Structures are given as C-alpha cells and as structure tokens.
Amino acid sequence: MIEQNQIVPSETKSEAIPETMEMAVSKPYLSIVIPLYNEEGNVEPLYKELTQALEQIGHTYEVIAINDGSRDRTYEKLQEVFEHDARWRVIGFRRNFGQTAAMTAGFDAARGDVVVTIDADLQNNPLDIPKLLEKLDEGYDIVSGWRQNRKENYIKRRIPSMVANGLISRLTGVELHDYGCTLKVYRSEVAKNTELYGELHRFIPALASWMGVKVAEVPVGDRARTYGQSKYGMGRIFRVILDLITVTFLLKYATKPMHFFGTIGFIMGSVGSAILGGLAFERIFLSQPIGDRPIMMLGILLIILAVQMVSVGLIAEVVMRNYYNPQGKPTYMVRHQLDVVEEKKLIAKQQREA
Ligand code: UDP
Ligand code: MG
What we know:
Elements lengths: L17 H8 L4 E7 L3 H18 L3 E7 L6 H11 L3 E5 L6 H11 L4 E4 L11 H9 L4 E6 L6 H19 L11 E4 H6 L10 H4 L7 E6 L14 H19 L3 H29 L9 H30 L15 H14 L1
Parallel strand pairs: 1-2, 1-4, 2-3, 5-7
Antiparallel strand pairs: 4-6, 5-6
The protein binds uridine-5'-diphosphate and magnesium ion (MG).
C-alpha cells in the first residue's frame, strides 16, 4: 500500500526557529498526525491555530503532516512551515493513497507516547485537544471527539452519519456517537497496532477493540470548512456499509472463520438432509413416486451449499493461519505480566546490553 516512507530531506533548515530545532530531535510526548489532500489554503491557518493551541497545552510535541499526493501547492506550503518550525515533519506520498494510508504513515512515524489525529481543514478545533487528553489521563486508551452542532448538510451528511454510527456501534459492540470525527487521541501502542488498509480509518476504535482498549467520547466543536472542498461524496455511504461487513467479520470470526461458515453450512445441511430423508422414506416404505416433488430440488441445493460452506470455512481457516503466522502478527496482546522467568530474561538482556 505504502511503497516506502520516503521523507524528503529539505535543503535549508537554517531558517527554522533555533529552539524548535532542539525540540525536534528529542522524543516528544505528543505526535499530531494530519492527512492533507489538496488543502493548500488550510496549511497556514492550521499551522497558526495548532501551534497556539499546542503551546498552551505545554507538552512537547511533533506534528507529522502527510501530503497525500495533492495536486495543488499543499506540499510547497508544508515545506515553508517545516523550514520555519522543525517540530513539523512532512511526509509526501508519491500519489494519492487515501486518508487511511496517510494516517498509517503518520502512526508509523510517530514517536510520541500519545498520538492525536486531526483533519487539515480546520473543521476540528485544536483547542479541543486538551479536553481529550484529560480524558485519556483518566485511564482510557482511545478518546474520540463527538461533534456537537454539526455544520454539515442534514440530508447528505448528518442522517447517513447517524445511521452509520448506530449500525457500527451495534455490530461491532464498540458504542460511539461519532465514528466519523477524525479528532481523536490514542495511546501510541494502540495507534501503531491497529492494522489499517482500504478506508478502515473510520473504524479504528472498533478494530482496536481486539486489544481490549478502553474507549471514551468527549463532546467537541464542529466548524464549517472555509478553504477547499470535502474529498468525499455520497459514494462513501455504500463503501461504509461494505466496510462494516468486513469489520464485523474480522472482529468476530477472523480467528475462527470455520465457526461462521461452518454454522451456516451445518444448518443448511441439516435442513437438506431432513428433506431428502423424508422423501427417501416415502419412496422406500410408502412406495410413493418422488420425481415430481419440487422440494427435492431444495433438499439437493441445500446439501450442495452446505458442502460448499464447510469447504469455504476450511479454506478460510488455512488463509487465516497464513495471515497471522508468517507476518508474526500476534493474535493477542498482553497488558500485565507476573512471571519470574520473563523478569529474569529481561534482567539478563539488560545486563548483556550494559
Ligand atoms: N484526505 C486525505 N486523502 C484523501 C482524502 C482526504 O488525506 O484521499 C484528508 C483531507 O485533506 C482532510 C481529511 O482527510 O484533512 C478529511 O477529509 P475531508 O475533510 O474531505 O472529509 P469530510 O470532513 O468531508 O468528512
Ligand atoms: Mg472535513
């Protein structure tokens, strides 16, 4: 998906404010991840608002701006910001890979303990960030913004969004009022371990739930877009529905696909067998002709489908084994560990390194 994380080095860094140069090398507390696609008009106001808000918060920070193959002057604008403030790190994609890929590149590059995602179009207010961070400190792993007083079109945006949020909450079991709000804060290990592809960035809280994360919501403001246009149209509604099917399957059955396909196959097989068994009984013991009975077709169809379902389940099991093992992808994540053996290993490792 992402060919290579090529961070193009800038020629002149001398312009940057010297104090930001020092801050830029040490590991920050916050990593702000911002995807940008054709947002040239937003870069400057975003820089101003964000810097002001972040300096008020007082934590050390870095900003990772991902230029997602913009066709306008977004990259040049980001370069200007970078030359002025070294806390900004700019990643330029070779082409438009989409918001999910951009966010993934940001998560991969993030060095902070806490990752913040925010839209470039200033629809989110950076002054809401401290509220989310406060909530995170109460012991949550993801805190999501919940936009109040939405400024968008009712029919095109808000009703589909309400339906989507209800469906996603029900099906994935992670209840949120506003999945669509990009303004979110995450503990770094959560952001880095949520495998994203396609357009699944909308489902991060649900997808991360396999790790056993605690998710909270905090009301945030919503503002209208001033510069540029939205990148999504009505087509998003159908893509979200299809993605929802994928996510629900991934969450519930990815580690046990046979349970899903097998159950359907088992039910179909049982009904099919009962039908054919009944017909066989009539033919053999009651000597009734069964050749003109349409229900026989149904019985045969159900049994063929049942065999196929079980086969698909078996293939899915093999595919999943290949998916998890070669990549060393864990099927679980540990929060605490009380284990003398592990402790000894750790101490030995530390001694060796010292
Ligand atoms: N975005 C991106 N790549 C894309 C589409 C969008 O990086 O292919 C960025 C965009 O620049 C913005 C954010 O993702 O910062 C959200 O996009 P947009 O504002 O168009 O979505 P909406 O607010 O309309 O849901
Ligand atoms: Mg927007």
